[in-house]
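Translate structure to sequence.
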């Protein structure tokens, strides 16, 4: 097990907890400024999006990467090297894993972008409210 993966996941869990705390704090602060809006739900949505991103990361690291590693080991065995049909099948399988990993990476980065936009909107609106 790589420790960098665990550190990343622990960092994302901490970030999710901080965003949820921010949401509850924003809920209380909107009551203080007499705004009955549901702006505090935006940080909660951002936390949910990051949780989905974390789930994709966990799936990639604990499911797809070990299978990809096994396929790479399998393709370098003498029995597979001698059989062109097996080699082609395993290469196609490896290509499928690569595409899946790239798709999950795109989902993860898109989730970070969406969460950042949601947090930017919620804080901007609140700052505008208190600046009146």
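Result:
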């Amino acid at each position: 097990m790589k420790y960098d993966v665990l550190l990343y996941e622990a960092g994302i869990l901490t970030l999710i907890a901080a965003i949820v705390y921010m949401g509850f704090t924003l809920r209380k602060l909107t009551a203080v400024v007499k705004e009955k809006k549901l702006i505090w739900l935006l940080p909660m949505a951002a936390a949910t999006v990051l949780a989905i991103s974390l789930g994709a990361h966990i799936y990639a690291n604990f499911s797809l990467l070990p299978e990809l590693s096994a396929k790479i080991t399998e393709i370098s065995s003498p029995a597979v090297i001698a059989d062109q049909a097996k080699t082609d099948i395993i290469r196609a399988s490896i290509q499928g894993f690569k595409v899946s990993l790239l798709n999950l990476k795109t989902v993860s980065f898109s989730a970070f972008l969406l969460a950042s936009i949601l947090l930017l909107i919620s804080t901007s609106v609140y700052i505008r409210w208190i600046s009146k």
